[in-house]
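Components:
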Amino acid sequence: MTKGKALLEVQGLRVAVAGNEILKGVDLAIRDGEVHAIMGPNGSGKSTLAQVLAGHPAYTVLAGTAKYEGKDLLDMKPEERARAGVFLAFQYPVEIRGITNSYFLRSALNALRRERGEAELDPIDFLQFLEQKLKAIGWDDSMMNRPVNEGFSGGEKKRNEILQLAVLEPRLAILDETDSGLDIDALKTVAETVNKLRAPSRAFLIVTHYQRLLNYITPDVVHVLADGRIVKSGGPELAHELEAKGYDWLRDAAMVS
Amino acid sequence: MTSIEAHVQQPYKYGFVTDIESEVVPAGLNEDVIRLISAKKGEPAWMLEWRLKAYRNWLKMSEPHWPNVKYGPIDYQAISYYAAPKQRPKLDSLEQVDPKLVQTFEKLGIPIEEQKRLTGVAVDAVFDSVSVATTFQAELAKFGVIFMPISQAIREHADLVQKYLGTVVPHNDNFFAALNTAVFTDGSFVYVPKGVRCPLELSTYFRINASSTGQFERTLIIADEGSYVSYLEGCSAPMRDENQLHAAVVELIALDNAQIKYSTIQNWYPGDDEGKGGIYNFVTKRGKCAGRNSKISWTQVETGSAITWKYPGCILQGDNSIGEFYSVAVTSHKQQADTGTKMIHLGKNTRSTIVSKGISAGRGQNTYRGLVKIMKGAEGARNYSQCDSMLIGDKCGAHTFPYIDVRSSTAIMEHEASTSKIGEDQIFYLRQRGLSSEDAVSMIVNGFCKEVFKELPMEFAVEATRLLGISLEGSVG
Ligand SMILES: Nc1ncnc2c1ncn2[C@@H]1O[C@H](COP(=O)(O)OP(=O)(O)OP(=O)(O)O)[C@@H](O)[C@H]1O
Ligand SMILES: [Mg+2]
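Structure:
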């Protein structure tokens, strides 16, 4: 399966936030068609990695490179990255009051379509398109006329991220703990959405704390991020090992090396 | 955050000066100046008497300093109280309007020539102290609707004017209203007869052009029984280092079952980044729901002026009458706004709704001040108030002063308030979905103001959102 072209290549990435160095030299290569999982203790820098790849302005790159489709990702504005197919499902999605979910989704989709030189969808065409996507995640359109994430439950917010993933069909999807706070059915929906989208021209970087998601989505590679570095990478079996043993043994290993 | 602030603090686009020969009365205020204004307007004696009475009262009054705004002393003797372009055209012939004036209004997006007039909107164009053109007057007259400069109405419809002028805002109501009464020069007059739904939107555009002048306009709108009218008001002024005073009075009267919808887009020159120049917008606006089941609705989008001081209110006298106030006030640069509303409930089962959205950016200071007063006889009165503030950047301020005075035991009051900061995380979320940072800010601001924008007539909603640099959600479909 690991035969695709390099889609994302991160080398020696060091990142600081609020003056503290959080990522201390991350190397990561993701090829087309692959699913990578990142696991690691709280505060180890997983979200930092996700945010910096998406271009959050609060994160300062101290050193290193990130190439996406061969281009310098770190040099692109957040919206340029998004339009080039980088999608981040947020660990903590924000609320936008007064703006309906469907208007927001359509604006986002049309921004991508403009970039690709495709015609924008008007509200009617968009609703038709949306109908199928909604069905897939088990929602009716009542959530579409509500303001973006406002008053959504934790699980609904996560589901909304998955809906956006399904609508925007990115090239590189980064999922930051999308499985946290989900009930079992929702978890399956997330997995199904991801599995359906798995394609030779698409890759996933999935941040998770739990093996349970990986029961449904079989990753090609599992990484362990601890204290700002990837301290171990392996196959799906690594996730099982972590589930059984925790992270301490790896941290100790990292100290030694 | 600087890109967000830059986006909200757009350069002023209406700051040009029209080079036109004007007749300007020398600066200074005294009874002779008032007599001169009255004579120029060809007013009847009762009008002059009223002006002089107001002036004599004004001399005894002092400028209010309770608003939460700061400015240096105003020299009322340094202001010219009358400025008008020379060769004033006859109002019944738009062809005779000076081309320079036609061009000016066209540049402001207010075409007044026959061929280019906005469809569905009748416009009264006021330039400094005079109305220079009023469109669709004849067409409206066919429906019995009177829409004309107030100076003309004082001559031609003295009975109506005399019956209602000053009944909602008395000549001694407050310092600036008294000043206005003494020296007002023009403005619009509207009368909608019984049972008539005014077939066009009526609007007045106020343009200040001359320097060292003030603009003092007066608007009077009467909706007779069972009638309806929607009135829109816009304004702008040149960019200058001096502060110019704009002190208007607006009075609305709604009789039984009548409705008046009054919308404002206030875009006076706000001054520069350092707070130099800009208009002092000290305005008294009040409506009286005199009749049963009448309704007056104020909607305002306040983006301009160095200082804004205004509280469009409603006196809910008729039983079951309704008063509404929807406001978006934006202060950026060093602008200051102290604005809100007064809802006075007198009649039974009267209802009022207040929705105020304050947006502060740069070093702007935004104050909401509102009074809800429910009198003893106002059984079953209800008020709903919602005051939301949004801060963009950390050098600006938002303040809220709600005053509540309830003297009826059956009153129902609801009040909600919130303050939020436009956050980098919100902007980033939208950019991560492919929106530019401008579109992201627009979307957030638009969502915040939504409840107010939806009250604006479509022509104005587009204008308002453009002013805030934002695109209108759902404007198509
Ligand atoms: N904006 C910020 N300001 C200050 N510190 C921050 C900021 N963002 C992240 N950090 C710090 O950086 C470290 C890494 O945070 P990050 O969110 O990347 O961890 P994580 O691996 O995603 O953790 P979790 O599993 O709990 O989600 C933490 O110590 C966190 O407190
Ligand atoms: Mg995290």
